[in-house]
Every structure is written in structure tokens, then in C-alpha cells.
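Private note to self, pasted from the team thread so I don't lose it. C-alpha cells:
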């Protein structure tokens, strides 16, 4: 039962949509866990087909701390995830000068908690809707910083197309925000997303990141490699050089997962199907199709390719045993309002 039931009175609502983004230069390591400040920047592509819609309401009177404040796909979210969202909503309300509590209801059109950047889409959509219902005015860059506190990668979903989340220097995180490198219409690329499991991961990304950074002997080398990857990726995107973008993304992805395998105890996100898909992507290249994989903290494989090659790439991935389905995606827009006034100018 949600807090709207019983004696809680709704005070209006706002609705926002945000898309998942897939990191081509990964975010893996924090210098401040409370504010989700990264050890280095990251670069991603926002996808049009993977979205979350968040409805945020102001409710009165303020519910007891134990009351459910977060529902996902019609189901109340309890435990750590529910507490995290409630704390995030309280932070947005407090910083916006709103005394009433906020309630978030989210619907996602793709598997949640399965390594598809669902938290990025969810927290970015919630941040936008929460700011709107609170009547707060922020720039899109400021929205990026607010969403980042909920989930680090949510900073990138504020913008469409190719996006860079900058590390920043300030201890309060106000300069750790995302910027757009290319609008979604500026380069005709595509991404096929091979779903190999729709179940929640056994180890959450944030928990795995903390464990790996503390125990993996490869982590220091990973951290040292990121600035060079960022420089090279930025230049490759500006030049619309798919081969270089793909090579950098694959190498960066494999280094990230190497840190996980070297942790003690090890963290492994891949399945046998994940490995088979990596080989299939290499086979596509041998066949003359420029296609490049990247894998986040989960078993799903995302394959970057030219727009005209998307159908062929998606069909090749779907034919692999163990693939449940393939989502065909293209560069998508940043967060947008469905109902309510946009908080950004």
C-alpha cells in the first residue's frame, strides 16, 4: 500500500521521462560515496528505447519514516532501495524549501537492476519531476548534479546523445556534472542491446564498485588509465570515428571487468552467453560489419554500430543461444517533462 492510501492527501504531481545511458568510458570508482563523486570522468550514449517515467507527488501530512515512499511498476519498494529513494526525495524537498514529503512512482520499459543503467534513468526522471513539483528552478547542468546524488550515472541522463560526466574538483560536487558532446541527431549510430537475463544482479553495482576498489590489485592501474581514455574518446566522437570509438570502448570495458575478476573475492558479472556474444561481435567485424561491444555491471551486451547496420547486428545477436531478446536503440534525448513545468530554463 502506498502513502496515498488512507489519510495522506495528495498535493499535485509532476511526471518526467529519462532514458538509460550506456557508458563507453566507464564510471567505476568513487572518491566520495555519499555524493557519488567519481574518481574520473566518464562518457556515454543516451538511448531512445530504454526509458523510465517518474511521477512525483507532494503528500501531506508527512508520513511516518517507515511509510512507503517509492513504488516501481506498481509494487512498493522497501528495504535499502526504498530508503535510498526516500532520502533522495527528502534532500530535493529540503533544498527546494518544501516542507511536505515527496512520493515517487516509477515505471520502466526495460529490466531494472540487471545491468542496463536503470538507476540512471530512474533517478534522473525522479529528480526532474521532484524539482518540478517543488517549483524549483535549476539549469539542466544543476539537475545533472542533483540526479548524480541519487545514482552517479544519472548525471549523464540529463542530456541526450553523447554525454561526458566531468569529474569536478569541488568537495561539494557542484562541478561534477554532465555536458553534451554531440546531440542525438548529429551522428547516425545505433546500439543493439542483447538481454541475456532479466533477473536482478546478485551484487548491486554500488556494492561491487566499493568492494572492487578496496580489494582489486588492478584498480590503481584502471584509475590511471581513465584520463587517456577520456581524451581519446572525446576526440574520436568529435571526428565521428566509429572504429576508434569502438576500440576505446571495448578496451575500457575489458579493463573495468579485469578489476572485478582480480578482486578478492572475485566479482563476475558475465555469463557464458556474454562471452559468446563478445565472440559474435568479433565475427561481425570479420564479416565487414563495424560493430563494437561494451558491458556494464551485468551480463547484458551492448553493441555499437552504424545506423544502417542495426538490423543485421541485432539479428546476429538474437541468434545466439541464451539471448532472451534484443532491443534496437538509437541516440535518444535528455530528460523531458510529460506533465508539469520543466525546472530547467
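Design output:
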Amino acid at each position: 500500500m502506498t502513502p496515498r492510501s488512507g489519510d495522506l492527501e495528495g498535493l499535485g504531481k509532476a511526471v518526467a521521462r529519462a532514458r538509460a545511458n550506456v557508458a563507453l568510458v566507464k564510471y567505476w570508482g568513487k572518491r566520495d560515496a555519499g555524493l557519488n563523486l567519481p574518481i574520473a570522468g566518464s562518457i556515454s550514449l543516451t538511448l531512445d528505447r530504454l526509458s523510465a517515467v517518474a511521477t512525483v507527488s507532494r503528500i501531506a501530512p508527512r508520513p511516518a519514516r517507515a511509510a512507503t515512499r517509492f513504488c516501481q511498476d506498481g509494487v512498493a519498494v522497501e528495504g535499502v532501495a526504498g530508503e535510498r529513494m526516500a532520502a533522495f526525495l527528502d534532500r530535493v524537498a529540503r533544498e527546494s524549501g518544501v516542507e511536505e514529503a515527496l512520493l515517487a512512482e516509477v515505471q520502466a520499459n526495460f529490466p531494472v537492476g540487471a545491468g542496463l543503467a536503470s538507476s540512471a534513468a530512474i533517478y534522473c526522471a525522479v529528480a526532474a519531476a521532484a524539482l518540478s513539483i517543488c517549483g524549483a528552478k535549476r539549469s539542466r547542468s544543476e539537475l545533472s548534479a542533483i540526479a548524480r546524488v541519487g545514482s552517479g550515472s544519472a548525471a549523464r541522463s540529463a542530456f541526450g546523445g553523447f554525454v561526458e560526466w566531468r569529474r569536478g574538483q569541488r568537495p561539494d560536487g557542484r562541478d561534477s556534472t554532465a555536458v553534451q558532446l554531440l546531440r542525438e541527431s548529429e551522428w547516425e549510430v545505433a546500439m543493439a542491446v542483447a538481454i541475456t537475463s532479466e533477473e536482478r544482479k546478485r551484487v548491486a553495482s554500488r556494492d561491487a564498485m566499493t568492494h572492487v576498489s578496496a580489494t582489486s590489485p588492478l584498480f590503481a592501474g584502471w584509475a590511471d588509465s581513465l584520463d587517456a581514455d577520456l581524451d581519446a574518446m572525446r576526440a574520436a566522437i568529435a571526428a565521428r570515428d566509429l572504429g576508434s570509438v569502438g576500440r576505446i570502448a571495448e578496451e575500457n570495458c575489458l579493463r573495468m571487468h579485469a578489476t572485478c575478476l582480480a578482486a578478492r573475492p572475485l566479482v563476475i558479472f558475465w555469463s557464458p552467453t556474454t562471452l559468446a556474444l563478445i565472440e559474435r561481435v568479433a565475427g561481425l567485424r570479420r564479416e565487414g560489419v563495424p560493430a563494437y561491444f561494451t558491458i556494464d555491471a551485468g551480463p547484458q551486451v551492448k553493441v555499437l554500430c552504424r545506423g544502417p547496420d542495426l538490423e543485421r547486428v541485432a539479428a546476429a545477436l538474437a541468434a545466439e543461444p541464451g539471448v532472451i531478446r534484443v532491443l534496437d536503440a538509437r541516440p535518444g534525448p535528455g530528460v523531458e517533462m510529460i506533465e508539469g513545468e520543466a525546472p530547467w530554463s
